[in-house]
Amino acid sequence: MKIAMLARNAGLFSHRRLKEAAEARGHELDIINTLRCYMNIASRRPEIYYNGEKLPKYDAVIPRIGASVTFYGLAVLRQFEMMGVYPLNESVAIGRSRDKLRSMQILAREGIGLPVTTFAHDPKQTEEVLRLAGGAPLVIKLLEGTQGIGVVLADTDRSAKSVIEAFRGANVNILVQEFIKESGGTDIRALVVGGKVVAAMKRSGAEGEFRSNLHRGGSATTIKISPEERSTAIRAAKAMGLNMCGVDMLRANHGPVVMEVNSSPGLEGVEKATGIDIAGLAIEFLAKEAKPGKTKTRGKG
């Protein structure tokens, strides 16, 4: 099988592991810099060019599209899909997951556990938004933030109001969520591949840090998740339409709540914490599922 991987940095751990896993199983994998692709959007003859040459025919494509290049990356991925190349994750599904508000609305529609989440445009509604979210402490998130960037914990209603008004003044869209205190600065990331949870780890924040992201100095250990947590992760992945993703959950008093569904999860933390060959499982899923023209958009908007 001939596989293309859309990634800007071939040296990242996750990208090296996927390439190694593919080649160990007898496949060929080319890492293609997403931003160096350009497209001929011709009727019935879609083409992609790279470094001055037309790309050859691929059987599958692995999108590892950075958040900062989502718009162009999804355009390139759609072009692969138009050419009948099977994607590990489809463009529509990635687009859903990158829009925090849309993804929350989709998960809510499916009845999946979420923290109380509020959203408003008019700054005059700030006090009502704080009331709906249950009052301080509250988590305030930029809609476009990743890896814990743009996430603020407000300890009092007064500080929450100040943060919200500051973001509003900068014309930035935000979500306001209840703070799940009982999670104790830890969360669970469940890795889903092909509709199954293949690995799970507990991430703990650095000392004095409420965010548990590994990029923020957090640590990871393997964990056994409950049947309810496993079911929640699988349902969240299915709702998004993602074949491979990381589902981030908190253990609330009323059960697991989903914080985010990540369509390009990093492999280093979870592989080192669990010892499971996630990259190999992803390649094996592709080898089993990739068929010419099999791409289809799953789920609704």
Describe the structure.
The protein is globular, with a radius of gyration of 20 Å. The chain contains 9 helices and 16 strands. The model has no long low-confidence stretch (mean pLDDT 88). Helix 1 packs across helix 9 and helix 2 packs antiparallel against helix 3. The two termini are 32 Å apart. It folds into 3 domains: 94 residues, Rossmann fold (3-Layer(aba) Sandwich); 63 residues, Dna Ligase, domain 1 (2-Layer Sandwich); 106 residues, D-amino Acid Aminotransferase, Chain A, domain 1. A hairpin with a 2-residue loop joins strand 4 and strand 5. It is of the alpha+beta class and 301 residues long. The strands form 4 sheets. Strands 14-13-12-15-16 form a 5-stranded antiparallel beta sheet, sandwiched between helices. It has a 4-stranded parallel beta sheet with strand order 2-1-6-7, sandwiched between helices. 42% of the residues are buried. Helices cover 32% and strands 27% of the residues. Its EC number is 6.3.2.-.
CATH topology of the largest domain: D-amino Acid Aminotransferase, Chain A, domain 1
* Distance from first to last alpha carbon: 32 Å
How confident overall, as mean pLDDT?
A: 88
What is the general shape?
Answer: globular
What is the top-level CATH class of the largest domain?
Answer: Alpha Beta
Count of runs of 4 or more consecutive helical residues: 9
Provide the spatial order of strands within the biggest beta sheet. 14-13-12-15-16
CATH superfamily of the largest domain: ATP-grasp fold, B domain
Tell me how many strands there are. Answer: 16
Structural class: alpha+beta
* Rg of Cα set: 20 Å
Order of helices and strands: EHEEEEEHEHHEHEEHEEEEHEEHH
At CATH's second level, what is the architecture of the largest domain?
2-Layer Sandwich
How big a fraction of the residues is strand? 25-35%
Which parts are unreliable, with pLDDT below 50 for 5 consecutive residues or more? none
Level of helix content? 25-40%
For the biggest sheet, the summary is: 5 strands, antiparallel
Quickly count the domains: 3
Enzyme class: ligase
Domain ATP-grasp: 104-287
Pfam family, one: RimK
Keywords: ATP-binding, Ligase, Magnesium, Manganese, Metal-binding, Nucleotide-binding, Protein biosynthesis, Ribonucleoprotein, Ribosomal protein
